[in-house]
Structure to design on (187 residues):
């Protein structure tokens, strides 16, 4: 039995994804949804590779993943960052835009989906100097766009750019970028 055999490639991809997601401080339920690993196995991976290592500070968060969408549209800054993340999810192939209508999920394996969300999160962290959202919030944004359909891409009436909008809220057709641009400068 060699790890390099093709029959272990799927298991190795799941293991690598679990390590990557633990490094992003993902919750156990999120890791389990993407890898299919048991809670016990995820805890063992964490304790083996992160808990006792000097210089590595990865905290494990308990409880369910956050699901409220108000954090994505509560301010122009948060809405612009949510739009950035949604565009990165689109770019990495985690979500897809229908010809007309809402975002749809792509038909890929859960491991591939987890890798794509991790890619989007890593690029977001590299682009945003002071990020507002954790990995769990990015996962929640993916679910709100593709699964629950609580958020969608709207078009700005001024610049015609896309932005993330609450599906159940009144839309003034102004993206957060135009909203920020039109505000008077604070002294």
């Amino acid at each position: 039995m060699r790890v390099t055999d093709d029959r272990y490639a799927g298991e190795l991809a799941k293991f690598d994804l679990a390590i990557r997601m633990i490094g992003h401080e993902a919750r156990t339920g999120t890791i389990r949804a993407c890898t299919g690993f048991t809670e016990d196995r995820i805890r063992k991976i964490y304790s083996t590779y992160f808990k006792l290592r000097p210089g590595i500070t990865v905290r494990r968060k308990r409880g369910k993943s956050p699901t409220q969408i108000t954090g994505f549209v509560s301010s122009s800054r948060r809405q612009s960052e949510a739009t950035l993340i949604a565009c990165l999810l689109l770019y990495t192939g985690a979500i897809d835009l229908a010809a007309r209508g809402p975002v749809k999920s792509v038909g890929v394996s859960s491991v591939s989906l987890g890798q794509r969300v991790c890619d989007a999160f890593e690029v977001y962290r590299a682009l945003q100097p002071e990020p507002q959202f954790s990995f769990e919030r990015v996962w929640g944004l993916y679910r709100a766009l593709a699964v629950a359909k609580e958020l969608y891409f709207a078009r700005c009436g001024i610049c015609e750019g896309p932005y993330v909008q609450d599906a159940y809220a009144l839309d003034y057709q102004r993206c957060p970028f135009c909203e920020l641009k039109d505000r008077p400068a604070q002294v």
